TrEMBL record, chains A, B:
Keywords: Oxidoreductase. Residues 9-150 form the Nitroreductase domain. This is Nitroreductase. It comes from Sporomusa malonica. The lineage of its organism: Bacteria, Bacillati, Bacillota, Negativicutes, Selenomonadales. Belongs to the nitroreductase family. GO terms for molecular function: oxidoreductase activity. The keyword Disulfide bond does not apply.
Length: 189, 189
């Protein structure tokens, strides 16, 4: 059921790093993104895929993790993502690409969830540094990084009251709790 | 299989308008969007749902359809959407909301596809007019409209060569053809 995939698709930030995600798997996921809606069908997005060292480590070094967890510097060695898909766009496209990137990224993560993987969309990126790491031409702009791997953490959803605090948090067992608004608070009557 | 849903999730613009989409169905779809990733978990999106006349017709009158089909003014009466989900955001949120809207809209459409519905994300909106139709407070900004219904048209994907024309087109049988780039042209090596 699609609803099960949506529920299982949490943002994971710790992984069994030794469990490889193959290039073929990444290509399968990008092929899903290839088929999604695109503003005016422009299809300006491009996908840089990585699933090996030392590239994985170089990408990792350009990312910021979980802004609300002030004490946490991101996943330690051994718990880092096994793969990345970096979503970039050809510059010069005027429309639709920010919607497009969300559409594509979510489709990739839902597809990953179905096969037992998980990940996280990361917007906190040192853009110039990652541009250099990937040797990306100036004609490309980085929009989002998707970190992927086999999840090594438990993530649970907490329903919050209207105007409740939306900051996620970790308990003493390192379970990650994510406050989500209730349906009644997001539907306009 | 998730891949089947992704493939079946085309942008549909003609519907069996008399086949109702209930409010409960719309709430189920919005509940999927409630659980998706959100930039910094801010959850700034809100959802206005409509599944009845005269509201449906009033929303329809604010939308532009299929920009590349110059001869086509949009679906005729009887083939118009049976429902709409309008994605709006609370103004004053600084981050993440354009990614968020794509993430949410795609999740809604994939969920609709699973239950035999289809639809189209529409960004060509007369914003002020729709704001008035929905009686939306000034504190909300309209981001995207999702038109929904039981699809009444066939949509096929055509693979295009590198830098091929991305404009969709209709053949003499009113089949809608959508050119999509090939995998090799969207993956950066």
């Amino acid at each position: 059921m699609f609803s099960d995939i949506v529920k299982a698709n949490r943002s994971y930030r710790r992984f069994f790093e030794q469990e490889a995600v193959t290039r073929d798997t990444l290509l399968t996921l990008v092929d899903y993104a290839r088929l999604v809606p695109s503003g005016a069908n422009k299809q300006a997005l491009r996908y840089y895929i990585a699933c090996e060292q030392p590239l994985n480590g170089q990408i990792f070094a350009t990312l910021g993790w979980a802004g609300y967890l002030k004490e946490w510097q991101g996943p330690v060695a051994g718990e880092r993502p096994a793969a990345y898909i970096v979503i970039v766009q050809e510059k010069g496209y005027k429309m639709g690409t920010s919607f497009d990137a969300g559409i594509a990224a979510q489709t990739i993560l839902l597809g990953a969830t179905e096969i037992g993987l998980g990940g996280c969309m990361i917007g906190n990126i040192q853009h110039a540094k990652l541009q250099a790491v990937l040797n990306l031409a100036d004609s490309f702009e980085i929009l989002l990084v998707i970190a992927l791997g086999k999840p090594k953490e438990k993530v649970t959803i907490e329903e919050i009251e209207t105007d409740g605090d939306i900051k996620y948090w970790r308990d003493e067992n390192q379970v990650h709790h994510v406050p989500k608004r209730q349906l009644k608070d997001i539907v306009i009557i």
